[in-house]
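Worked Example 4.2. Consider the chain below.
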Amino acid sequence: MGGIIGVTGTPGTGKKSVAPLLAGMLGAECLSINDLARSHGLLVRKGREWEVDTERLRLRLHGFSGPAVVYGHLLPHSMPGRLISRAVVLRCQPLVLKQRLAGRRYPPGKLTDNVESELIGLVSSEAFEAFGEDKTFEIDSSHSSPHEVANAANEVIAGRSGPGPRIDWTLTYDTGAKLRSLLSTGAS
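Applying the procedure from the previous section yields the following structure tokens:
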């Protein structure tokens, strides 16, 4: 494998679990965007959160080369598109994602923001825009193990299977009642 494989998706979709498995399958180094930002002094604490200076990181990574699997939800904002040979977007059914994030004790506002982001496909849309339709594909991680998701990504990257259709969760949450239930911060 040459070049850089990107793994991105909304927080909670499985990037941190899938990326190292995929890197192992490809014989590549595995790096997180946050680790890259930290190593370049571009991870800054803002209150209780850490933020990446994506613009400065993008400039620093200008000459970066692989083989590597680089992962993070900020990948479309921090990795120059020409460096990515393939971009894997992990998607997760919004109700499953809500349960995962609640299990991680996400604050209600942050939980709702991330579930809404996944519902509308924000990170996916950013990845397709940054890396192009021909290099970007989605995998549903809702009910698959990290190993199954990494295998599916490896099959597409190796050309042994084609990418599936784009995922549209809005077709599932097509009424006001379903949306209110999904986006409420009460018990799920």
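The two ends are 42 Å apart (CA to CA). The CA atoms of residues 5 and 69 lie 5 Å apart. Compare this with Example 4.1 before moving on.
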